[in-house]
Design a protein that fits this description.
The complex is a heterodimer of chains A (348) and B (324). Chain A has 11 helices and 7 strands. In chain A, the strands form 2 sheets. A 5-stranded parallel β-sheet of chain A has the order 1-2-3-7-6, sandwiched between helices. A two-stranded antiparallel sheet of chain A has the order 4-5. Chain B has 324 residues and is α/β, with parallel strands linked by helices. Helix content of chain B is 37%, strand content 19%. A 7-stranded mixed β-sheet of chain B has the order 3-2-4-5-7-6-12, with helices on both faces. Chain B has a 5-stranded mixed β-sheet with strand order 9-11-10-13-14, with helices on both faces. Chain B has a two-stranded antiparallel sheet with strand order 1-8. In chain B, α7 links the parallel β6 and β7. Classes of the chains: A alpha/beta (348), B alpha/beta (324). At the A-B interface, α5 and α6 of A face α3, α4, α5 and α7 of B.
C-alpha cells in the first residue's frame, strides 16, 4: 500500500475538546456567512453526487469534501474588484463569488443553459463580471495567467488583487515556477494558495517534492510564504486577508500553503483505495465544517437551532436548484460548430 | 515617404499601435533597455516607459500566460518571442488556454505572439524554424506570415486590433533584405485574404513569407522560357483564403505549393488537400508540395542550401509539372 511520505504529516494530532480556531475580528454574522458557504459547498456536492449516481452527470465529478475551509476562507478575504482563478476543487470559492448552484449543476449535466452552453463541464467556466477566470486542466497554467490579470489591473489603475490555487501535485509543473517567479519579479498584486491535500490523484506528496512545506518554496522567489491550517476556515481567511492587503498595498505576491486533506478520491469513480484508511478516520475528526460548528457553538456565536435553520434553508434552495437544472434541455447539436472566433471588426 | 525595410515596418506597426491605443503593451525578453535581439523595440522603453515595455525572465510560457490574463482584463498584449523557435515553450498556453477560451466560456483573448521565423541565416536547429504547422491545426488561432513590407506593417496592425489570439510570424531573412513603401493612412491588411502577387497563365505557385520572393524570382526567370507563373501570396495561414486558392487553380490548372516547412503535416499539405477535394476536375497534373525535407534545420551553408527550397529547385519543379 502506498503511504504518505515522511515529508507530509497531519497538523493536529488530536482534536481538542472545545475547538480553538484562529483569532478573528469577524463579527458573528460574517462568521455565520462563512458557515453558510462551507455548508452550501458540501451540500451542493452531495446533490451532485446523487445526480452522478442517477447517471445525470455526463462526465467526471470532482469533490472538494474536506477542503471547504480553504476555498471559502480564501475567497471570502477578497473584495468585489478582485479576480480569482478557481480550480476543480474550489467550488466553494465560486459560490462565495456569487455562482449559483444551478450553474454548476447544469455544467456537470452538460445542459444547454449551463454557463458554457454545454461546451465545457464541471467548474470550467468563468465570468469576469464576477471576477472569475476559468481554469484549464493543465495544472499550473492558471498561475501565469493570473499574474497577467494582476499586471493588467495595476496598469489600469484598478485596485485589484488576483488570487488562484494550486495543489501539491501542481507545484511540480513548470508553469508553477514560471508564473510565480514572473509575479514576484514584476511585484504584482497576486496571492497563490497551495492546497496541500496529500494526494495528487494517487501520488503522495513525497513523490512530488522532498520538502515538508510547500511554503518553503516562497523563499526561492523572494516572497513571503506561510503555512496555515487548511481545515480552519478562520485561519485561511486571516492569512489570505493579510496577503491580499499586502498585495493591494504594493507588497507583491504571497504563497500560502493550506494543509488539508482530500476526503474522497481524485474523482467520483476513484475509491481512493491507495489512501490508508486510518488517514480518513483521523481527518474525519478534523472535518472543517464540524470544527467550525464546534467553534461557533462553543463560543456562543450560534445556537444549534440557528445552524439547523441555515442548513434547512440551503436544503430548500437546493431542491429548487436541482429542479431547475434538470429541466434545462441538452444543447442543440449545431452549437458544436459555433463560437470558435470572436467576430472581428477589423476591416480595410 | 522613403522606402523602409521589412523590420522597420514591423517596428513602425508596433509603434503606431502603441501610440494609438494605450491598451497595447509588450512582453518579452531583452525588449526594454536592450531594444530586443533584433532591435525591433529599440527606443520603445524611453518613449513608452517600463509599464508598457515589460522585460520578463526567460519564461515563454509565463509570458504568454500573463498576456492571456491581461487580455482578458481588456488589454492588448503583444508578446515577443526572441526567436519564434521558442514559441514551443509556450505551446500549452497558446493551444490549451488562449485558443479554445472563447469557445469554452465566451471570453475573448486578444493577444499577439510575434517573433522572427525562418531559415537561410545559418541559425541551425533552434533559430531557423517555421512552426506554423503546429498551430494551423488549432481552432481559435489566427496565423499570419507576411512576405512584403506593406503586409508586415498592415498585418501586424490588424493582428493587434483583432479580438482573437493571432500568431504573427515575421521572416528574419527578409528583415533587412527587402524594402518597400509604407502605405498611406492606416495600411491595415485584412487577415484571411491572400494577395495575387503576380498574374500568370500556365502554372500557379501558392506560397507565403520568404518563399514569396523565391517564387517571384523564378517567375521572372521562367518568363524568358515562355512559361507564365502566377504567384499567390497567402499572407494568412489560418484561416486560409480558400476562394483565392481555388480561383488560381481554376485559372492555371497546375499548382505548386511552396513553403519553408518540413513537408509532412505542413500547411502546404492542407492547401493541397483543399485543392484535391474542391478543384479536382480543374487539375491537369498532380499538386506538388515543394517544402523542406523531413529533417531538423541543418547549420552548415551547404546543408542548409540543400534543405531549403530555392529558385533553382522551384524552376526545375515548374518545368517538370509544366510538361506533365
Amino acid at each position: 500500500m502506498a503511504t504518505l511520505g515522511k515529508s507530509w504529516g497531519p497538523l493536529h494530532p488530536k482534536v481538542e475538546k472545545g475547538e480553538r480556531l484562529a483569532k478573528t475580528e469577524l463579527p458573528k454574522e460574517r462568521q455565520l456567512e462563512l458557515y453558510h458557504f462551507m455548508k452550501l459547498n458540501r451540500m451542493v456536492e452531495d446533490r451532485l453526487g446523487n445526480l452522478y449516481r442517477q447517471g445525470k452527470v455526463v462526465g467526471g465529478l470532482y469533490s472538494s469534501r474536506g477542503q471547504e475551509a480553504t476555498s471559502v476562507g480564501s475567497a471570502y478575504a477578497l473584495e468585489p474588484q478582485d479576480v480569482m482563478g478557481p480550480l476543480i476543487r474550489n467550488l466553494g470559492s465560486m459560490l462565495v463569488r456569487g455562482v449559483q448552484p444551478r450553474e454548476v449543476m447544469m455544467q456537470y449535466m452538460a445542459k444547454s443553459d449551463s454557463p458554457t452552453g454545454g461546451k465545457d463541464g464541471n467548474t470550467h467556466f468563468g465570468d469576469l463580471k464576477r471576477g472569475l477566470v476559468a481554469p484549464i486542466s493543465m495544472l499550473g497554467s492558471v498561475i501565469p495567467v493570473m499574474a497577467g490579470v494582476a499586471l493588467a489591473g495595476r496598469m489600469q489603475g484598478k485596485d485589484l488583487v488576483a488570487l488562484t490555487y494550486i495543489g501539491d501535485g501542481g507545484t511540480s509543473t513548470g508553469d508553477f515556477h514560471e508564473g510565480l517567479n514572473l509575479a514576484a519579479v514584476l511585484n504584482v498584486p497576486f496571492v497563490l494558495i497551495a492546497e496541500h491535500n496529500g494526494w495528487a490523484y494517487s501520488t503522495p506528496t513525497s513523490r512530488q517534492m522532498r520538502i515538508k512545506n510547500i511554503a518553503t518554496r516562497a523563499a526561492a522567489y523572494g516572497i513571503p510564504g506561510e503555512v496555515v491550517d487548511g481545515n480552519d476556515v478562520l485561519a485561511v481567511y486571516e492569512a489570505t486577508k493579510k496577503a491580499v492587503e499586502r498585495a493591494r498595498a504594493g507588497g507583491g505576491p504571497t504563497l500560502i500553503e493550506s494543509k488539508t486533506f482530500r476526503m474522497k478520491g481524485h474523482a467520483e469513480h476513484d475509491d481512493a483505495g491507495y489512501v490508508p484508511k486510518e488517514h480518513f478516520e483521523e481527518w474525519k475528526l478534523k472535518d472543517p465544517i464540524e470544527r467550525f460548528e464546534r467553534h461557533l457553538l462553543g463560543n456562543g456565536l450560534a445556537t444549534e437551532d440557528e445552524l439547523r435553520e441555515i442548513v434547512a434553508k440551503i436544503d430548500v434552495q437546493l431542491n429548487a436548484e436541482v429542479d431547475f437544472a434538470l429541466a434545462s434541455p441538452m444543447p442543440p447539436p449545431e452549437r458544436a460548430f459555433e463560437g470558435v472566433y470572436e467576430p472581428s471588426e477589423v476591416s480595410v | 515617404m522613403a522606402p523602409v525595410t521589412y523590420i522597420e515596418a514591423v517596428r513602425q506597426a508596433l509603434w503606431d499601435e502603441m501610440e494609438k491605443d494605450e491598451r497595447v503593451f509588450m512582453l518579452g525578453q531583452d525588449i526594454g533597455t536592450y531594444g530586443g535581439a533584433f532591435r525591433v523595440t529599440s527606443g520603445f522603453l524611453d518613449h513608452f516607459g517600463p509599464k508598457r515595455i515589460v522585460d520578463t525572465p526567460i519564461s515563454e510560457s509565463a509570458m504568454v500566460g500573463a498576456a492571456i490574463g491581461a487580455a482578458m482584463m481588456g488589454m492588448l498584449p503583444v508578446v515577443e518571442m526572441q526567436f519564434i523557435d521558442f514559441i514551443s515553450c509556450a505551446f500549452n498556453q497558446i493551444i490549451n488556454f488562449a485558443a479554445p477560451n472563447r469557445y469554452r466560456w465566451g471570453q475573448k483573448v486578444p493577444i499577439v505572439v510575434r517573433g522572427p521565423a525562418g531559415g537561410n541565416v545559418h541559425g541551425s536547429a533552434y533559430h531557423s524554424q517555421n512552426p506554423e504547422s503546429y498551430f494551423h491545426h488549432t481552432p481559435g488561432l489566427k496565423v499570419v506570415a507576411p512576405g512584403t513590407v506593406a503586409d508586415a506593417y498592415g498585418l501586424l496592425k490588424a493582428a493587434i486590433r483583432d479580438p482573437n489570439p493571432v500568431l504573427y510570424f515575421e521572416h528574419k531573412y527578409l528583415y533587412r533584405r527587402i524594402k518597400g513603401e509604407l502605405p498611406e493612412g492606416d495600411g491595415l491588411v485584412t487577415i484571411g485574404k491572400a494577395n495575387l502577387a503576380r498574374e500568370g497563365r500556365d502554372l500557379s505557385v501558392i506560397t507565403y513569407g520568404a518563399m514569396l520572393h523565391v517564387a517571384l524570382e523564378a517567375a521572372g526567370r521562367l518568363e524568358a522560357e515562355g512559361i507564365s507563373l502566377e504567384v499567390l501570396d497567402l499572407r494568412t495561414i489560418k484561416p486560409l483564403d480558400q476562394e483565392a486558392i481555388l480561383a488560381t487553380v481554376r485559372k492555371t490548372s497546375r499548382v505548386i505549393v511552396l513553403t519553408e516547412e518540413q513537408t509532412t503535416g505542413s500547411v502546404a499539405g492542407e492547401v493541397a488537400a483543399r485543392i484535391a477535394q474542391n478543384a479536382f476536375e480543374w487539375l491537369d497534373g498532380p499538386v506538388h508540395r515543394l517544402c523542406c525535407p523531413d529533417t531538423p534545420v541543418p547549420y552548415s551553408p551547404t546543408l542548409e542550401e540543400a534543405y531549403l527550397p530555392n529558385v533553382d529547385k522551384l524552376v526545375a519543379k515548374v518545368r517538370e509539372l509544366a510538361s506533365y
